[in-house]
Write the structure tokens for this entry.
Amino acid sequence: MTDTVTLEHIKDAYARIKDHVHRTRVFTCAQLDDRASAASAPAKRRKLYLKAEHEQKVGAFKIRGAVNAIMQSDADYIVTQSSGNHAQAIALGCKVLGKTGLVIMPSDSPTVKVDAVRDTYSCEVKFCVPTQEAREAMSAEVVKDLRAKHGQDKAEEIHPNQDIRVVNGQGTIALEFLEQQTDLDAVVVSIGGGGMIGGIAAYIKAVNPKIKVIGAEPEAAKSAYMSKKAGELRKNPPNTPINTIADSVKSSLGATTYPLVRDFVDDVFIVNDDEIEDATKFMMERAKQVVEPGCGVAVAVATSKALYEKYPDLVNVGVVLCGGNIDMSNLPWKKK
Amino acid sequence: MTDTVTLEHIKDAYARIKDHVHRTRVFTCAQLDDRASAASAPAKRRKLYLKAEHEQKVGAFKIRGAVNAIMQSDADYIVTQSSGNHAQAIALGCKVLGKTGLVIMPSDSPTVKVDAVRDTYSCEVKFCVPTQEAREAMSAEVVKDLRAKHGQDKAEEIHPNQDIRVVNGQGTIALEFLEQQTDLDAVVVSIGGGGMIGGIAAYIKAVNPKIKVIGAEPEAAKSAYMSKKAGELRKNPPNTPINTIADSVKSSLGATTYPLVRDFVDDVFIVNDDEIEDATKFMMERAKQVVEPGCGVAVAVATSKALYEKYPDLVNVGVVLCGGNIDMSNLPWKKK
């Protein structure tokens, strides 16, 4: 069993999963370039390269890690807990790979994500109190029950971001991105539990350490920002619902991802919900791409004054558009 | 001056405009294919090819016709009236080509479109009562005033859909589409004033008459449907605001486009606002593409029972995603 996140493991993961995931396109948007260019004083011509994981299967990068983990698991029953996108990914992965999936979702999950897991991918859903602690507790309980019923090795939990196999799977985003765009100065990545940025950062620093890896977090869930600052793992306040429109990045770093963020991520920037809403709408109204607020977090940082004041030399900036799952009947902002 | 819509004129238009417009991608969406495949009984495997004009400059195909017309005009002052997308196209075209633009917009135009014309493209906007008649009357008046002030040949109106140069410009969508996808059985196109489908149909029937050209209209503005049925031009009821969420396709056919629709369009299907809303949301939630309801009209028809009951042999179906200009702070449907 893989127990580290490395270039070789990410390459292996890619060989394993590539027939099950989309090689998403990298594209540009002139109006977004203008915004990033104008973000510094004096203005500087910049170009943003957007990796379209919102067009990935299940509408988010999570399918990469989920499939990589499921393909390496001998269990018949795969249990997970997730705020949404990983749930869909496990559900689709189990369906395609012939396993039975059981997903714990917080009771305030967006309808569009619950429907996708249950209806589109025929996976069983259990709801729990919307805190990370409650999800983890219920997940452990479900695994225990399944093992009692079917046998010790028949059920396994795949954690959405602390499972090493998941993190190696997410690292394949960087593998594709660096093949598709060879002149990147930086890659900006949203951080929830850190599985995506952990895999991406490990890969990038092994291949070309000059490329900056920049994390992006909502102010209301800034575990990585605090951890970097403290020099040790800092979680979001326990047993407290987190109040941000960026529902897909509410998790804290964990034992697997903190060391990766510490060692391979150059910096972490935080943005507030107004900035997240603005960036998310900008992607929709100008780039015509549906992204979720958790993705808007990275776009907000990649077009921020703060980023280019600190790193004025950045010109070719990659941004991972990590997901596009948002309920169009119930957008998380007010009508104007 | 070009006075017809022909293959040669469309090829000329393409040579003229191609450095000013995007060659938009053609892409597919597995979930949309599933929907079209399941639309007939028995189900039949179908593939929808989507021409991404929502990613075109100004967020809609209209830039093609606008630039083609402006480049052939000797006037310094370009006047137009438009419900939105053509307004933006004329505004950007004038800016790029060094002309002065004046745009009449209906008072109920979406804010996002008015802002784009005025703020993004620095074009003067005048508002009028939201009927086609009022727009046309004010437009004629503005041209008259400008000619009185600057000289007879200094000001000219470019009609959003009845100007032959505009129609030839829109035909370049088909030129690209047939190069990009060579096995299309049909192309489905939304119809407002008929400029887009007129150019597309003329091109397609000259190149490969076997490809069906299918028009799509909202129930509330079915001028083409009624005209085909009557065998003569039928306009929407005069001086009556038209009630549909598909704000970009409220116009009637006119003297230029009716004969093109009569001669080159195989059939016209109508859909109601529920179907338009559903298709528009589907494009956003599943394909992750922001399209406007006027584009949802074509998507609704291309995934409808009615289309495949009448044309069961269609397998590879092209759909023009004509525009993506929609106000994300004020979506035209209720929260759920």
Q: What stands out?
A: The CA atoms of residues 243 and 316 of chain B lie 33 Å apart.
